[in-house]
Amino acid sequence: MQVQRSYSGFELALDTDHATLRHAGQVVRSWPIVSVGSLSTSAARVLAEERSDRLLVVERAAPAALAVLRDAEISHVTRAGAWFLVDPPAVMVVRPPDRASEPRAPSAERPLAKGAGRIARWMLLHPDAGALTVSELARETKVSEATSSRAVRQLAERLLLEVSGSDADSRRRLVRASDRAGLLDAISAQGSWRRARRVSWDIGARDVDDALHRIRAAAAQTGRPYAIGELAGAAHVERLAEPATVTLWLASEDLATWQDALLAQPASPAAGRLSARIAPDPVVLDWANTIDGLRVADLVQLYVDCDAAGERAIDTTEMLRRRILQR
Fold first, then answer.
1. Residue 294 bridge partners (DSSP)
2. What is the pLDDT of residue 103?
3. Distance between CA atoms of 5 and 13, rounded to whole angstroms?
């Protein structure tokens, strides 16, 4: 199906594998199309070196990645509506992005069964654990054996886990990860994390570092569990993008306690503000790691947070994915 777009007298027709730019009815340039899901800065540098004669149709990209493409004069369009079309030396068409991009299409994949996300997370965080029985997975992840069995069955049906052993007793079967990347994608696609309740607070912090200092002090006062997520948490792993706000994962019953301890007031998101979120699964709090005196969400949760954060976190998302899958 062909898509027609117009800007400043130019018309761009996008087909499934070809694009044509016209002006006043005359063909100015045509390109073969290459679709790109997420474009990181490092991937953009590779494309810049290849210098192939293609039009990139980019679903989402880090701002720095698009800058690399522009500097290399590589033609591209984005889902947000931006054009950068070059036919040197005569034509250059630059269209700014629309103010709002299309929402992400919901996944058609059946949601993970209860406990499946937790088991997938545990296996990604413990790559050296080897093969475990269903009973051992239940014990490690603190779910019932029945829940563990159903979760393993669903993940195995998706070819994300390999199950071997006795058909007579599912609890004696040995389970190991067969597709770690698929496990990570399945967790990231879980809507419960994207829909988790969010409250924006002003805690009087000047910037992110000041907000983290206040959280550290409040944690000592309350003694309640928490986990720093998204870019503020990922910066403790590797700082690729400067966080503007802090995401704080909390238990629902602790929300009021933390609000009192931080002297927090409801406010719109802004630099130095805190985004308090209610964790759909308590393991995000239980499995956090202590770094620099703060509880930082595990690598999988940081990946899920940054993957949902959009273009500003693409480079960080790629870094976290690489670290998880290379463990």
1. 291
2. 37
3. 6
Q: Which residues contact 306 (CB under 8 A, 6 or more apart)?
A: 230, 231, 234, 313, 316, 317, 320
What percentage of residues in the chain have a pLDDT greater than 70? 93
Of 197, 228, 198, which is closest to residue 213 (Cα–Cα)?
Answer: 228
Q: What Cα–Cα distance (Å) separates residue 305 from each residue in 8, 10, 227, 239? A: 38, 39, 12, 15
Residue 238 to residues 50, 122, 266, 284, 316: CA-CA distances in angstroms? 28, 22, 30, 20, 8
Buried b (16+ CB within 10 A) or exposed e, 220-237: eeeebbbbbbbbbbbbbb
Bridge-based pairing state of the strands 10-14 and 26-39? unpaired
Q: Are 281 and 165 in contact (CB under 8 A)?
A: no
Distance between CA atoms of residues 220 and 293, nearest Å? 10
- The DSSP code sequence of 107-169 is P-SPPPPTTHHHHHHHHHH-TTS--EEHHHHHHHHT--HHHHHHHHHHHHHTTSEEEES-SS-
Question: What's the predicted TM-score (pTM) here?
Answer: 0.77
Pairing assessment for the beta strands 174-177 and 227-229 based on DSSP bridges: unpaired
Q: What is the pLDDT of residues 84-111, one digit of tens each?
A: 998 766 677 888 877 544 434 344 456 7
Residue 277 β-bridge partners: 198, 249
Burial class for 88, CB neighbours closer than 10 Å (0-12, 13-18, 19+): exposed
Report yes or no: 133 and 155 within 8 Å, Cβ to Cβ.
no
In this predicted model, what pLDDT tens digit does every residue of 207-235 receive, in sequence order?
999 999 999 999 999 999 999 999 999 99
Residue type, 286: D
Torsion, Cα of 55, 57, 63, 65 (10° steps): -50
